[in-house]
Amino acid sequence: MEALLRRQFAGTPPGVAYCFKKEGGWPASVWQLDGAAELYFGFVSFPSVSDAPAWLSDGAGAADPAKALEALEAACDCAEPWGPNAEARDSWFWTPYSLCAGKWTLQRPSAALAGDAAHLLSPVGGFGMNVGVGDAASLGWRLAAILNGWLAPDAAFSGYEAERREAWARCNDYVVSERARLMSSGSRDAGGRGGAYETALLGACVDGRARVGLRLPSLPGALLEARGVTLVVVGDDLAAAVEPAFRAACDRIGIPCRACSVDGAEAAVAAAFGDHRLAICRPDAVVTHLSAASLPDGVADGGSSVAAEALLLSRRP
Questions:
Q1: pLDDT value, residue 59
Q2: How far is CA 150 from CA 70, 78, 156, 159, 216, in A?
Q3: 230 — phi, psi (to 5°)?
Q4: Could you read off the pLDDT of 177-195 as tens digits, one per residue?
Q5: Is the separation of the CB atoms in 285 and 257 below 8 Å?
Q6: For a 10 Å CB count at each end of the chain, is N or C smaller?
Q7: What is the mean pLDDT of residues 153-177?
Q8: What is the CB neighbour count within 10 angstroms for residue 46?
Q9: Would the pLDDT of 60 be above 60?
Q10: Taking Cα atoms as reference points, which of 96, 97, 41, 39 lies closest to residue 68?
Q11: Mean per-residue pLDDT over the chain, rounded
């Protein structure tokens, strides 16, 4: 079957999805799961339950995989028959959906939802696991901040729900748009660096610009402190001016820190900072402060709790 599909999709690399949409029909896809065992997963995308064959949508199709295989082959409209050796192992009717909890956190007692407990996403794009890992990373440093006494629980959890709900919404919007694309053309977004898929997963920072509330783009010379906060400064002159106050504040808080100077002549650095020259990142590499030359208010002269909030909590303009 692999040879048959490769002949119909000349030039397509192996191990990808083969997508079909014949005129007047619904889009269908076949994915190779195991090349050695010739094991495949295929589906037909119906606009609604009423558009699907009754024998499938009423549950009867699950008991007749061979019938489902015939429907898949017809929808795929292959140039050559799949042949008698294609054997259906299983079939089912599935309706995709997305859900998001109305509230993710409690202040007293302190508790937070993450992963599938907080949100569900259609499997399109594989976002569910990725968003859940992002939740865990965001919660991890917040819990560490509470246990180490850097932040009070209320402060530590303050931005978690809004930040991660925004990440879920980006991915959900992408899934909705990709389904619309699939239904109309039978094709999917090819993705690529800085494309719609990567933007949905990571946010607008994939364009290489640093933004408060999103991960710092990868920069030459920027080695971040995964256990604490990082000061990233463009140019050694500014680093010498602000680094002492930054380190003194981190010492007051008792938080690990790192300061690094990056070269503004590097294209990636220039694109990331624009008119800014100073950024602060929390443990998960998210930018909490971005400015032309100054540390956040409260870092140099505030108490430990004020300084910690200024360094660790994002305040978008």
A1: 63
A2: 61, 62, 9, 16, 22
A3: -130, 135
A4: 877 776 676 565 655 566 7
A5: no
A6: C
A7: 91
A8: 18
A9: no
A10: 41
A11: 87
Cα gap 317→211, rounded to integer Å: 10
CA-based angle 185:186:191, to the nearest 5? 95
Distance of CA 252 to the CA centre of its chain: 35
**252 closest CA partner among 301, 292, 289:** 301
**Other residues' Cβ atoms within 10 Å of the Cβ of residue 278:** 23
Q: Which amino acid is at 8?
A: Q
Peptide bond before 244: cis, by omega within 30 degrees of 0?
A: no
